[in-house]
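chain below, 523 aa
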Amino acid sequence: MNASRALAIVSGSSNNSIGRVQTPTLAMICSRYRENRSFVSTPYWQLHVTLNGGTSHRRFFHPATFDDRQKAEAAYRSLSPDSSATVTKVERRKSLQQPPLLYDLTALQKDCNVHLDLPAAKTLDIAQSLYEKKLISYPRTGSRYIPHDVMACVPGLLERIMAMPEFATSAGILDFARLNTRSVDDRKVTDHHALITTGIAPEGLSEAEEAVYTLIAGRMLEAFSPCCEKELILMECRLDNMDFRSKSSLVVSPGWRGIFCRKEDRQDDEPETDEGTAVFAEGDTVPVSGFGLSQKKTVPRPPYTEATLLAAMETCGREIADEQAREAVKELGIGTPATRAAIITTLFKRDYIARSGKSIVPTEKGLHIYDAVKDMLVADVSLTGSWEKTLLQIERHTLGPDTFMASITDYTCKATREILNLSLPAAAARTFTCPKCKTGHIIVREKSARCDNKGCGLTVYRRFLNKELTDQHLEQLFSSGSTRLIKGFKGKKGVAFDASVTFDAGFTLTLSSPKNGNGRKRK
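prediction:
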């Protein structure tokens, strides 16, 4: 690939372009994907004993794991059957888990992806629709807080939400006399406050709109509810000169967790829930009812999903080495809440990334770009931090704007020089026998694919209705006569639907419904 073509792709002046914000995002996806694929799993062993508590039991684990199988088996054989363990420590402590903050757009997109399987761009469209129907506040917000004057309206809004059938079982959780005000902070409100409902009763919503509205309303109930109160229990015992430990947590009062009653995701600072419910007292001598050796293995970090990618884009500034630059960019990350969905959509549209189940993985083309630019200035996430740091200095009058502009000029020259010297590997040539004339070959270009047989004339434009056909779509179309199901077509009334693109008898593109296989002809 020549330098001018490389410049067009990386700088953003072609239909396959990847710009200044898309490049670091692609780099994150490719890096995680490569890390996952190259990960070599290693086995380890964990020793455990089970203590009998009469009608119940509890499993204790040896705190150290064994990397060597022979040592693990030797430790296992050293345990005496029909022995007793001495409980050496019993510690109980209360733990209060604060409710989550109100939604900003990114937090809403993450939850909609996890709980409703909605892409970020679709969530933004639905939130915008709810806003235009005056049901929620401005959705393109980056703040998760509300000011005190808005808080004055919250009790009335919460009463309307509690009247919704979805939250009928939540009665009694909220204490209106002592609402949790963790999400109320005038200093942390940016241009727009957090997402809240307006109090207008929703009517005539689509299924997806109703689901997103329910999430936003439910998050309001969660945010102003009491903390979730837990009791953490740590017990230790000693058996045959070996120590064992058991950690568990018990929900005393669910508080905000009673709104949706979802299964709790374990937090990094919380213990895993071990098997059994028996509780012993310090100094007890308890019979051992069994012991075992479990083989486990290390696992890699999974590829990004849309939810975890949004979170990584939001917090990528934490990995910047320069402390001042990291502080300047910590609330920014890559893009803004309003643009992150568009960044991801662009990478899908340009065929740099694809979905594999719920995971996001790079395509071959995406990996080519990543390998070429990963060490270049255009892919450097820390630059955003350094620029924000410099702008902060200008705001505080500790640095002149001319110095910043000179650095931007220097960056532009260096980045352009790197791009002009870039040599991308040529993509593998893909040719298809023309399905119409059976003799010509299909030539795939940026905006269209056409048969090289002048007497045939078969041409397929990438832009079909409101969708851009990717290389994979074209490959499916020319090899089998139909693409796989493509999501997000829009009808005349703006209603979204899913369909496959197929050839009709005259080799004109049509839509094929997944329900009955009959398509409508579209020229």
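The chain has a mean pLDDT of 84. The longest strand covers residues 84-97.
thats it, cya
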